Amino acid sequence: MSSLLSLPVAISAFELGFIYALVALALFLSYSILNIADLSTDGCFTLGCAVGAQVAIMGHPVLALFVAMAAGVCSGYVMSFLQTKLGVESILAGIIVNTGLYTVNLAVMGFSSNLSLFKCETIYSLTKDWFGPDWYKLVVSAAIVVVVCMFLKWFLGTRLGLSIRATGDNEDMVRASSINPGFTITVGLCVSGAMTALSGCLIGQYQKSCDINLGTGMVTIALASLIIGETLVGKRTVTRRMIGAVLGSCIYRFVIAIALRLHMPTECLKLVSAVIVAIAIAAPYLKDRAVFQKRKLAAASAAKGGRKSC
Amino acid sequence: MLKLTNVRKVFNQGTVNEKLALDGVNLTVEDGDFATIVGSNGAGKSTLFNCIGGSFLVDEGSIFLDNRDITFVPEYRRAVEIGRLFQDPMKGTAPHMTIEENLALAYLRADKKKSVFSRISKEERTLFRERLALLEMGLEDRMKQPVGLLSGGQRQALTLLMATLVPPKILLLDEHTAALDPATADKVIALTKRIVEENHLACLMITHNMHSALEMGNRTLMMDAGRIVLDIRGEERAGMTVDGLLEKFSAGAGKKLDNDRILFSKVEG
Lengths: 310, 269
Ligand SMILES: Nc1ncnc2c1ncn2[C@@H]1O[C@H](COP(=O)(O)OP(=O)(O)O)[C@@H](O)[C@H]1O
Ligand SMILES: [Mg+2]
Description:
By secondary structure, chain A is an all-alpha fold. Helices cover 78% and strands 2% of the residues of chain A.
């Protein structure tokens, strides 16, 4: 086991786990709370990476985070506009935005499918001397996730946050409280887009590169993280659910790290991801089924026993 | 004051399923009026409420609230001045949010200028606790629990409180006790009476219980086939019996009242 998970491998799994946790938190908002399957996540993630990379290349790695988030807000806004103003169903709206974003992302990257950040400063290279060479990436990533979690916790406790939570729970009731659900959906998707794009921006700076296909499959992975977290930590309070999303994301990265250590070819990773997601989503259902089957068997054997005795 | 003039609503216009649900309804509800509404199945009672509440727009006619034309005002804006309860206790509350959070949302109707980033304050908590205590269901000690854990009757009582926490100009109750067991229904009816009286609300209440229809409020309306066929109040209403009302209905609508639940409740009562 120790050979499977050396300290550096564990650290980098945590680093990635924290960075990708932002997408899981974004889906926590859009999927768990607002009940919207946001399929524009993949494109939005790449958008954050591309925009962030360009700004970092211009020499502003910190500003890049905020510009990337602003880009994410725009993506979320378009998504909600299609849904609330044009009546496009959420799944379709996501697919449409995602498709459009591919071209947008290419344009942002100057119509090349790759950007390199090797020659420029990143928020990681800036903080390298502060926390020591082994830990700085983890510290920075974790700190950002903690800040985002604290913001989200605060935000969901405000009147606006409560309205957003109620929108996913009972839209009629939101309307009865004199709030326009179209507005709450818009705000929710914008915040969620900002988090997804921030994650993409951090990954770009972390890997010192941006690729047009970076976001492919992101929504599946984030969903898996979210569900792993919900299964382990439960979904009683907002705080628990956020911790679950972060934890789920880290666990997912550990599974991938171990798979790589077992010399799984990188081409197979997407399949591994899909299997993990399927298992994670099916687990609660299978658990219920197992209980049901057990009771059915018990009832059947009891009936048999009863017949024998008479 | 609520005023409807010549309101018409047709569903599925131009198809074989075309249905004239409201056929030129004229109705004026004065401030402080509490009118009960009875009628046959499919008479258009719920549709009338949906038009007043803004769930959908009317095809013809206008709706005025305090002399302001609200015919084209969206539903969520009307909700500032119109409180509603439905038959389904699940409809009025968010099940995964706590009692306190639900009340906080209902309280948003109070002050539109309040910052959207403000949180539930101590004063508000105290207010919610006091109001919950008035329901006499022990909910004031369960403010941090999700509403989904409450019984149907408790949820309906909470919804009633939410709809009137900020007194609306008019309260619309659509068979709001029909899904409750008789004892709970009585309790919610008593609560309704008290809250409407204390706040001097104008109120329209659809019911299938002929006794409540005559006993509650100051006015009774009967509907059939998208029209208001009977509107009684004052002395005429005071001397009215359930049988008398059914007879009047037959005279007004030109047929017998066809509502299984009403006839059932008549036997029961
Ligand atoms: N959304 C709708 N679409 C189509 N038909 C409807 C709709 N709502 C109500 N109706 C029809 O309009 C008529 C009146 O319905 P409603 O107002 O619900 O009656 P009730 O008096 O029993 O509450 C019924 O025939 C019903 O089938
Ligand atoms: Mg009805």
